[in-house]
Design a protein that fits this description.
Length: about 280
């Protein structure tokens, strides 16, 4: 009975953005991930070919091509989406690292401050945070649309990534810290030289999943007039009235991006497991 309870306690439910990714030993051609990914690519190619008006025009408009298929980076919803996502995850990582270190700090004020930050930010929806920074704070300071989007998403995801760093640091065996202290290192030196390098390997997969979630949530910045994929789609649909066709193409592009990066995260995680087993 004790063994059964111990086995059940080790079981955990994990839901990530990579649930459709086939396992390493899954050789099935018709796996869920392959059907979804290649089906989306096929739809992206076939729909503009079968019906150039409007699918081809929609695709060119939201990606950033003109009528002669010349790429205009300034009008590319795809480029703007990646710009917001990459900048947001960069600053979120910086915030998250500081918050994660603060959450394990022995200084009660810093620990409590970081804990309050995590609780408050995680308790407010991202959409509300976007409105608050762009509209509410405009009473005191005017923030540009893309800057407000990056700030809001970095602050929001910084709280979640901070918890990832905290859990990653605490997952390192305590013997590592004790050995570093025995060698004459201070606690700070041990964290930066011994603990953090090992933590990075632990937190990379969950941070990869946060990147994917942030990529999808970047569609919310369209409400701030940031010309991302969804905003460009809304602009096209509002003038052409092809709502079904426009949002179908937008959804397909987001699906391809999400599944592609989910696959990369799964490959990274698998290789890290192999390297860990070999070492």
């Amino acid at each position: 009975m004790a063994k059964i309870e111990e086995k059940q306690s080790k079981q955990k439910i994990e839901i990530t953005d990579g649930v459709l990714i086939p396992a390493r030993d899954d050789s099935s051609i018709f796996s869920a991930w392959r059907i979804s990914f290649y089906g989306a690519i096929a739809a992206l190619v076939v729909l503009p070919f079968l019906s150039p008006e409007p699918y081809s025009h929609v695709l060119k408009f939201i990606i950033g091509f003109d009528e002669n298929w010349r790429f205009d980076i300034g009008n590319s919803g795809l480029v703007k989406t990646f710009e917001v996502t990459v900048l947001s995850i960069f600053f979120a990582l910086f915030i998250g690292l500081l918050v994660g270190l603060g959450r394990i700090s022995r200084i009660s004020f810093i620990n409590r401050l970081c804990t309050v930050y995590v609780e408050v930010i995680r308790g407010i929806p991202l959409l509300v945070q976007l409105f608050y920074i762009y509209y509410a704070l405009a009473k005191f300071v005017k923030i540009m649309d893309i800057s407000a989007a990056v700030i809001a998403m970095a602050i929001c995801y910084g709280a979640y990534i901070g918890e990832i760093f905290r859990a990653g640091i605490q997952s390192i065996p305590k013997g590592q810290m004790e050995a570093a202290l025995a060698l004459g290192m201070s606690r700070s030196q041990a964290i930066y030289r011994i603990i953090l390098p090992q933590t990075i390997k632990v937190v990379l997969p969950p941070i990869g999943n946060e990147f994917i979630a942030l990529l999808k949530d970047s569609s919310l910045v369209s409400i701030l007039a940031v010309s991302d994929l969804l905003r460009r789609g809304r602009e096209y649909a509002s003038t052409s009235f092809y709502y079904f066709e426009t949002y179908t193409m937008v959804a397909i592009i987001y699906l391809i991006l999400t599944l592609f990066f989910s696959r990369l995260v799964a490959i990274m995680e698998e290789r890290m497991k192999i390297n860990a087993n070999q070492s």
